[in-house]
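User: Here's a structure from my thesis project, written as structure tokens. My advisor, Dr. K., wants to see whether a designed sequence matches the one we expressed. Can you design one independently, without my sequence as a hint?
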């Protein structure tokens, strides 16, 4: 059966409740924290040694597609009717958006400790304790707009610049790649201050708190952000049907900066045996309601 992922702003009240209930159920079972741990373990930066698969690498899109699909299937083992909604952050750009309602994601963190005090994922409600993280603290944190150094969410024009890229990715296959759809949408850019963060990265910076870094899965909005990123990859593929669906096609050779650092099209992406090639289409698993 093919699932349908909807824009979060079109969810009915019942659909929002079912999604939240399923997420909380996974949390109580301990399954949710397993997803957090996976993302922390595979968040490898350019400056670190070892294989990069989740970020700063060509496999950013297929790795997160598989990660999302695993999460969605876990939710559906709780409630078969639940799918992962997406957050179009080019449209719902305000803390007043329905996304941040008391019955869904909850709101901003309070000043001082940035603790989220509203919604189902507030620590004080007793159902959302942070157990796997790269920082201390048991409560979920957010800092909308990064008050210390203000930043806005990406605009439709920002996304359009990414979608115009005609190549999937370019050498050296990392956060310094100049051009290519993957790095342009993932959002690593030269510059100072907030100019360094574009698109996907800018969303993480705007939400702030736990959405910064490898422990970002602790904030359930992570999934809605990445569902939209996944949809944008689908849109890019539709716009550029003749482009290579994934690069590099072959493993970088000895002496290349990407040697044993990035995954080629037919190589497995840890922690799975799944290859990027197997994730270049989601037909047969889910569709997006646009």
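Assistant: Designed independently from the structure alone:
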């Amino acid at each position: 059966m093919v699932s349908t992922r909807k824009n979060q702003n079109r969810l009915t009240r019942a659909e929002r409740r079912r999604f939240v209930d399923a997420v909380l159920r996974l949390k109580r079972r301990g399954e949710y924290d397993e997803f957090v741990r996976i993302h922390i373990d595979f968040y490898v930066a350019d400056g670190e040694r070892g294989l990069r698969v989740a970020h700063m690498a060509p496999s950013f899109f297929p790795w997160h597609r598989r990660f999302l699909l695993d999460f969605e299937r876990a939710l559906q083992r709780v409630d078969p009717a639940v799918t992962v909604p997406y957050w179009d952050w080019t449209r719902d750009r305000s803390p007043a958006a329905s996304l941040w309602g008391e019955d869904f994601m909850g709101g901003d963190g309070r000043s001082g400790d940035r603790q989220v005090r509203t919604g189902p994922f507030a620590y004080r409600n007793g159902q959302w304790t942070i157990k796997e993280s790269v920082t201390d603290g048991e409560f979920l944190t957010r800092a909308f707009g990064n008050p210390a150094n203000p930043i806005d969410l990406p605009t439709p024009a920002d996304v359009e610049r990414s979608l115009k890229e005609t190549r999937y990715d370019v050498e050296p296959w990392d956060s310094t790649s100049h051009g290519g759809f993957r790095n342009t949408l993932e959002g690593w850019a030269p510059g100072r201050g907030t100019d360094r963060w574009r698109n996907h990265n800018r969303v993480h910076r705007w939400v702030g708190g736990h959405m910064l870094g490898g422990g970002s899965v602790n904030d359930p909005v992570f999934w809605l952000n990445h569902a939209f990123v996944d949809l944008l990859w689908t849109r890019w593929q539709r716009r550029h049907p003749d482009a290579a669906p994934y690069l590099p096609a072959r493993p970088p050779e000895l002496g290349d900066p990407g040697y044993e650092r990035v995954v080629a099209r037919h190589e497995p992406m840890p922690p799975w045996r799944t290859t990027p090639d197997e994730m270049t289409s989601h037909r047969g698993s889910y569709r997006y309601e646009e």
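When you compare it with your expressed construct, this may help: The mean pLDDT is 96.
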